[in-house]
Amino acid sequence: MTKMSHNRGQENLATSCGTFALYSLLCRHAKVKTIPNQHRTDEELTTYSRSTFNENSFAEKTKKWLEAQDLRKNALLLLVLAGTCMVIGDGILTPAISVLSASGGIKVNNPKMENGMVVLVAVVILVGLFSMQHYGTDKVGWLFAPIVLLWFLLIGGIGIFNIWKYDSSVLRAFSPVHIYRYFRRQKRDGWSSLGGIMLSITGTEALFADLAHFPVSAIQLAFTVVVFPCLLLAYSGQAAYLMQNTDHVVDVFYRSIPESIYWPTFIIATLAAVVASQATISASFSLIKQAVALGCFPRVKVVHTSKNFLGQVYIPDMNWILMILCIAVTVGFKNQIQIGNAYGTAVVIVMLTTTLLMMLIMLLVWHCHWILALIFTILSLVVEGTYFSAVLLKVDQGGWVPLVIAGAFLGIMVVWHYGTVKRYEFEMHSKVSMAWVLGLGPSLGLVRVPGIGLVYTELASGVPRIFSHFITNLPAIHSAVVFVCVKYLPVYTVPEDERFLVKRIGPKSFHMFRCVARYGYKDLHRKDDDFEKKLFDNLFLFVRLESMMEGCSDSDEYSLYGQQTQQSRDFLLKDNLNTSTSVADLTISSVDSIVPVKSPLNATPTVSSGPESSQTEVDELEFLNSCREAGVVHILGNTIVRARRDSRFYKKIAIDYVYAFLRKICRENSAIFNVPHESLLNVGQIFYV
């Protein structure tokens, strides 16, 4: 089992990214996302691609069928989450089985050693492995390729030696007729053995799935020239060894190693197990990060461990949870046979999930003919269903472990996503009408306080209810108000120069704006990113471009700064800084003071041009800069979800206890955006579902 460790790790790394990557592809080509926060401007991103279908095509009918009912959208998401949770289970089982099987080599040359000592060594290695995760793989990643290459060459060479020394007739097993004879002879036992046989092939197909990290030619070359031949030679060599040593079937790998190279092989095997474990742990972190971005997992602290690679992240809370569960599995089972049964169950369910998603991808994304998609699905399900039926026979022999782990994580994800969707629907249905805002007048019926208020909301359009709740209970509002919406799109990443969308709300005299910050599911809010500075840079750009575009008929709802060149952006920012000076007739004071501000813009917005337009632009930029110097306050809404009194008991448990507990322990939005506490204002409200 040790020699398969690296392959298993690579499979999980690719699959974890692949599950959400496939789902994001489907969300781009069909409206199946359960949180409907898409906007037509999102489709203009350079990383956003989608295609249209013929009205009468099978793909178009499939698309409409998926979009027709929320039940189908939820079923698709549930399928994705089930596969995702199984991968998390892999992230727990792979380090356990890899390290434990590698550590088992100590006992082979010391038969009198107790199994508890092997487990203790494995636990020590696991604790050290998880304790080093905060350093990331960037610093030690350069060692992985030499270790893996040496590992494959070593097991391939040992296989050749064993074939030559013991029995070269095992090569006849490449004939398909022998599998028929095997099943006819072994019958039910032969069928049950497929659960263990599957472990020898898991991971090899992931070389073709991990296209985001390597060129296609490199993956094809590595698999064809190195991985596949070395695995065939290794297994054939072990079969040849067993022909003359049938009593060594339990630990055949270490028994078949020539004694002269036993300990070097043991060291390489342990290092390969560490590489495999590192791959699956990193994959689990990446997967949790993507789940958080899609609103399917509670907000947790995410640390970016590499400046060069986008996907290398570390999640402290999940790291220690995975370590505890991994040690519990290792100590609880104490041998790799039962852990292998558990691992096989998780892997085959992930395969089934991926196949079902691939069927939709072939139809909606690749535009394959439905007959071709059907043939692919049937052939894949026949193979995977065969293995699945075999692993079901071993559920009571350890196969229940990934089901329990996946069930726990699936419950957390479903409850959290349900609460997130209900909160978004509440925001959508209770947003304030523009007629109400316009009826308040330029002062919004309040005293305008010097400064800028950044109101965070989940809405990409409309004025959130939290704003009306705020001005109803407080007698003042800031001179300038910016509604900030941070949303994640079903794309891998959003280019930095296309991240922000800015729009004006109401007349110019209101000084109200909306800014939408868009991120991909692999993007990360880094601590060194000055989110506030970038937001204001884009706001000033909007004011200048809006002034330049006055009187033009080809204006859009949003200003897309991503369409501008870097040179034009730098020029506008430089010009903005040169023209933005202090305003003499403004009363500047602290944010907490209630002092009326004389606005330089009180006129009704009209189509203007020439010097008048330029002066208006300069005045507004000066006004915004003076407000920014007066102080910036971050206003965060804290919407509490509660179940109605007449709700069923399971809904009350899910909302009032599970979801409330997850909200309590999850990371605050203020920490995600690095908002200083002295500039933070929380506004709470309760709604019932």
UniProtKB/TrEMBL annotation:
Segments traversing the membrane: 75-97, 117-135, 142-164, 190-209, 221-241, 261-288, 309-331, 343-364, 371-393, 399-421, 433-456, 476-494
Residue ranges of domain K+ potassium transporter C-terminal in the record: 450-686
Bilayer disposition of the protein: Multi-pass membrane protein
Cross-referenced InterPro entries: K+_transporter, K_trans_C, K_trans_N
PANTHER family tied to this protein: OSMOTIC STRESS POTASSIUM TRANSPORTER, POTASSIUM TRANSPORTER 10
Protein name, per record: Potassium transporter
Function summary: Potassium transporter.
Keywords assigned: Ion transport, Membrane, Potassium, Potassium transport, Transmembrane, Transmembrane helix, Transport
Underlying gene: LOC113709405
This protein's record includes keyword Membrane: yes
All copies of domain K+ potassium transporter integral membrane, residue ranges: 18-436
Record localization: Cell membrane; Membrane
Annotated family: Belongs to the HAK/KUP transporter (TC 2.A.72.3) family.
Gene Ontology cellular-component terms listed: plasma membrane
Gene Ontology molecular-function annotations: potassium ion transmembrane transporter activity
